[in-house]
């Protein structure tokens, strides 16, 4: 995936292995990949293909064994733990299947948490505005247990949005949702991309992947294919072929 402008994220010959000796597993194997700014890319592949590992390497959650990871113009490959913490706090956002909301905090407090951890005291109006953007304006004072799965995921997205990250990474963001909630979350992600956000999403669901601008397919830790503008049927057929 090439672009004339600097990509939001670029992987150059990236590898990540686990274990040693005969038990060594190369989860990501010499991957070259770019995620253009203002686009939505879905990452798919059979179980064990390296999808989540690739996402974690691109986001700076895991260190690579070889190659180079760039966030915009910044090489984060050899960044210190402190630098990576600052990067994850200020320049990237994360949305996961399990929501990862703190049960003791309200929706407003969960959304404000990244800013407070950075030493900032955001005005309540800012937090309310972000919740309103995800359709949760009336639920700000509710705790996670008082919200449906789809509502919790929207709060999690608001929390990821509040720092205005360069890239939003999502790992199976609709995997724990019913079909109606999943459609709502996917429509929200599409609106974010249409507004200029960059999203990299791991998913196993062809219908979810079809909402993205491009779909990257992995097999055995390597990029096997790239589809642009694919339908859910196109994606499903490609997955079947990969698993043969």
TrEMBL record:
Q: Which residues form the signal peptide?
A: none
Q: Which domain of life is it from?
A: Bacteria
State any single GO MF term: ATP binding
Q: Which organism is it from?
A: Pseudonocardia alaniniphila
Tell me which Gene3D superfamilies the record gives: P-loop containing nucleotide triphosphate hydrolases (3.40.50.300)
Q: Does the keyword Secreted apply?
A: no
* All copies of domain ABC transporter, residue ranges: 9-239
- What is this protein called in UniProt? ABC transporter ATP-binding protein
- What InterPro entries is this protein classified in? AAA+_ATPase, ABC_transporter-like_ATP-bd, ABC_transporter-like_CS, ABC_transpr_LolD-like, MacB-like_ATP-bd, P-loop_NTPase
Query: Is Ribonucleoprotein one of the keywords?
Result: no
Keywords of this entry: ATP-binding, Nucleotide-binding, Transport
